[in-house]
Write a structure and sequence with these properties.
alpha/beta
Length: about 240
């Protein structure tokens, strides 16, 4: 398995394919979770795997002191234009220890499950646990793989501007794999996304192995209770 995220996330075509994502829904979710957490003004927040920083910026506008980190150097370079005295960005591979500790760590919108081995994912969760202050909380938002696999769309064509993306989805050796292909001026381009199909029960066990305690489970961005069969999301609030 190649580390597909090293090239795909820095590709212009990645940003083209996903440019029309529903950011309103994401901001409503952040509003809901922020009100639920009710952090103090001096609490520190890490947005782990922040991409271009959209959600870090939104959290900062709500009053939080935020740092965002991401593997993609291009994304972090873009995000740095929005820095202020309570908003900072830096490049970081989540498989490595965090450089400091925080009161809250957010990992949102399925920004997990990209690595080849379970050990790498377990190491990442341990790094997050170690990166929290003593009473810190980890907010983890992942797909509910039970629901995703039940409703997997095998083939899809998506038109974005002049580019027609052909998308094929399948489960391969424990990974939900998305094959993305398209032509540009007669040149064929192929990328893929691979996310480990971690069952909610498996994720909870991995969290508990690190020392986390589950405080709450939600099943959507309106913070409804989690239902294994019906919920599209698997959102955990975890304490150290």
């Amino acid at each position: 398995m190649s580390e597909w995220f090293k090239t795909w996330f820095d590709s212009d075509y990645y940003h083209l394919l996903y440019k029309d994502r529903d950011h309103t829904e994401a901001e409503k979710f952040i509003n809901n979770i922020y009100q639920y957490l009710n952090p103090n003004p001096n609490d520190t927040v890490l947005d782990l795997a922040c991409g271009k920083g959209r959600h870090s910026i939104y959290l900062n506008r709500m009053g939080a002191a935020v740092e965002g980190c991401d593997y993609s150097e291009n994304s972090i370079n873009y995000a740095k234009q929005f820095e202020n005295d309570r908003l900072r960005f830096y490049t970081h591979d989540m498989r490595n220890s965090l450089p400091k500790t925080y009161d809250y760590i957010f990992n949102l919108f399925t920004s997990f499950g990209y690595f080849e081995s379970i050990e790498e994912h377990q190491m990442t969760l341990q790094n997050i646990f170690n990166g929290l202050n003593d009473k810190g909380l980890f907010i983890f938002d992942f797909m509910n793989t039970v629901h995703v696999l039940e409703h997997l769309v095998a083939n899809e064509e998506v038109q974005k501007e002049s580019v027609s993306f052909n998308i094929k989805r399948e489960l391969i050796e424990g990974f939900i794999t998305k094959h993305i292909s398209f032509d540009i001026n007669g040149n064929k381009h192929k990328y893929k996304e691979e996310v480990r199909a971690l069952h909610p029960d498996e994720l909870i066990k991995m969290m508990e192995n690190c020392g986390f305690s589950v405080q709450e489970k939600f099943g959507n961005y309106q913070l409804a209770p989690f239902d294994l069969q019906k919920s599209k999301r698997f959102i955990l609030i975890l304490s150290k």
